[in-house]
Amino acid sequence: MKITEVFRMAVGSLGVNKLRSGLTMFGITIGVFTVIGVMTAVTALRSSIETGLSFLGTNMFQFAKFPVSGGGGDEGPRRRRLELRRDITLDQAMRYQQLMAETTNVVCLKVFNNGAPVHATYGGRKTQPGVTFGGSNEHFLAANQYAIDSGRNFTADDIEYGRPVIIIGQELVTRLFPSENPLGKIIKMKDRTYTVIGTFASKGNAFGGNSDAIGMIPITRFITDFGAERLTINIATQAPTQTLYNETLDKAVTAMRIARGLKAEQENDFEIYSNDSLLSAFAKVADVIAAGSFLISGIALLAAGVGIMNIMLVSVTERTKEIGIRKSLGARRKSILTQFLIEAVTISLMGGVAGILLGIGVGNGLAMLLKAQAVIPWDWAGIGLVVCSGIGIGFGFYPAWKAARLDPIEALRFE
């Protein structure tokens, strides 16, 4: 028999028992959906972070009181030790800046509001709560990959004298100044007033938030207005070139230890991280999530494989007489084996395709809710199809082999 005829007969046999075939496919769909959905979301978020990471600029590293995770995931003595660390004060940060003056001219000092959500107001208009509000110096642009759209950046005098000026993002411009120039206008944030001297160019949505909903004032003004209690300064430093990165980092650690007043035998009481460490922290979380999805998917696919074997064995029993007639008319064992394998693989692949489409849709939906760009994980989709084919062949082979080995005379007698 021609392979096309064998394939036609196999697909036709599946159509006879649509409900049974559909329920068997559903098990495969659930298993594939689990892993494809998770990996689609993870891939989209990873891509978004890698292309739009705005914590640090090029050749940057940062000192902070807490690690990237904030210390929330640490348990026991380590967590308590992190919480007991001294805050990085403005005086320490400025001392560090002085020590690094001959090594690099880009040292960004920044601190952000850690209280209730902030909104900005102007006249009778106001933004939604959740505006990123903080203080920094003139190097905030380089350290956080922002650019000035209109107006000007902070100057050294703005920082030294703690002037009540602010640079705002495009979200604030749109909501507060829909039909007028924001420069020179006075807006209110946390019951304090600031004069707009510049606007940031739009950055759009980043992982989990809106980068344009931001307002930054001189760091000295921030400390004056809101106090230094329970505030810790983050310090971002840019190496002059990539080749000088390690050398700059070594000098920076020494300068930071001096600024913090640490003795030679004392360990660092601050964290160091860069873009690579941020990506690494996300990768660890993603790996745990992926491992969990693989476990769930594996169990579902194993159960679905057993279901395929069961339905194929039932099918062989129900069609014993049909197989005997075909063999008596000259059908070879190879044709019978091929037909039943095609049936098993078709069920598995159809369930797999449904799971892939559903997983990509749900995974991208989740990623878009988190402000990440949609992706299609072609590699995982391909792996999914290969795995489904393997399940169909592996669990469908024994029923197919049993059908091919039936004695035609005994099969014709079967009722």
Task: Record the SSE blueprint.
Layout: H1 3-16, H2 18-52, E1 60-64, H3 76-83, H4 90-99, E2 107-112, E3 120-122, E4 125-126, E5 132-136, H5 140-144, E6 148-151, H6 156-161, E7 165-168, H7 170-176, E8 186-189, E9 192-200, E10 205-206, E11 209-210, E12 214-218, H8 219-226, E13 234-238, H9 245-260, E14 271-274, H10 275-318, H11 320-328, H12 333-369, H13 378-404, H14 408-413
Question: Which key features would you list for this structure?
Answer:
single chain; 415 residues; alpha+beta; 2 domains; twelve-stranded mixed β-sheet; two-stranded antiparallel ribbon; 14 helices; 14 strands; 56% helix; 14% strand; elongated
Question: What is the gyration radius calculated from CA atoms?
Answer: 32 Å
Approximately how much beta-strand content do the residues carry? 5-15%
Estimate the global geometry from the Cα principal axes.
elongated
Largest sheet: 12 strands, mixed
The residue fraction in helices comes out at 55-70%
Helix-strand topology string: HHEHHEEEEHEHEHEEEEEHEHEHHHHH
Ranges with pLDDT <50 over ≥5 residues?
none
Count of individual domains: 2
**Strand segment count:** 14
Q: How far do the termini sit from each other?
A: 26 Å
So how many helices?
A: 14
* Structural class designation: alpha+beta
Q: What's the pLDDT, averaged over the residues?
A: 82
